[in-house]
Amino acid sequence: MTVHIYGGGLRLVAKSGIGQAAAHQKAMLQSAGVTVTSAWRAPADVIHLNTVFPASLLAAWRARRRGAGVVWYGHSTPQDFRHSFVGSDALAPLFARWLRVCYSCADIVITPTPYAAARLRELGVRRPLYALSNGVDTAFFAPDAARGAAFRQKYALAPGQPAVVSVGHFMRRKGILDFIALAGAMPDVRFFWFGHTPPALVPRAVRKVMAAAPPNLTFAGFVPQGEVRDACCGADVFLFCSEEETEGIVVLEALACGTPTVVRDIPVYSGWLADGREVIKAADRPGFAAAVRRLLADRRLGAALGQNARRTALARALPAVGRRLCGIYRQAGLWRGQAPRAEQRE
Questions:
Q1: What digits encode the pLDDT tens for the residues 163-210?
Q2: Which of 51, 72, 253, 264 fits a disulfide with 9 by CB distance 3.0 to 4.6 angstroms?
Q3: pTM for this one?
Q4: Is 172 inside any structural domain?
Q5: 84 shares its domain with 206
């Protein structure tokens, strides 16, 4: 069986979770023995679409004319479009209609969590919807004291100096305003934000707050995946204040590294991340501050959370998710050829 992962528009989102998800799809399919291509010249049984640019809609029509199954990954919802880039709130109603047009052209829509699937049903998407994690590379993202030490050395962290890390675009939705405020309220702790957004896309209110960020907060910019891994391994806490997600690949990466993690108490985490078991959940800035302080003071709690978090990540390792993806193909009638490699071994 051959799957075409359509590359149109992926370069524009390469530094986002969507770009990472597309790379994960390639790895998980190859682990299951599925041939993956990014070229039209080789006929494919299925095409994966990850972006919602107009070119992706044209690619869906072209694939249908070739007789290929169309799988659209529902990374975007109207809810996670709001409070993001300049003008996103004004454009949100139009974006919602466009999403409905795109997803309705698929044979099936795969979205990372049951929560995200529910949001797409509310949107009016009537195609079959499947919830499947984006997965995480648990061999690459794994606890590693040496990697953590490299991060701490690079940023001149003194022995015992607490460090809190987050990753994301410069968006209100990602919780950057809360993160900056927490850094200001905790001057004894070093805070690091990894990620970058072109200034022209960052709302003025966010740019203003960033310009006045306290000196204990470092905006590290967009860095290679290896540096994100090192930061997760070296941080005392991974703090993700995002107000809306369809899953959160960076959360999966922190969990895979066994990093004590604090997330906002939002519905997307229900059913797979429990407060006090894999993560600490908080609803607001005082709650985030209390959770961070609690983890800095109670290393046993952090270690227990890290062990449970790693187990949760392993259940979403790329080979495991690849097998589930092949199962979805078969359930939807899109599978062609022999059984997936994993099933042949059983």
A1: 999 999 999 999 999 999 999 999 999 999 999 998 999 999 999 999
A2: 51
A3: 0.92
A4: yes
A5: no
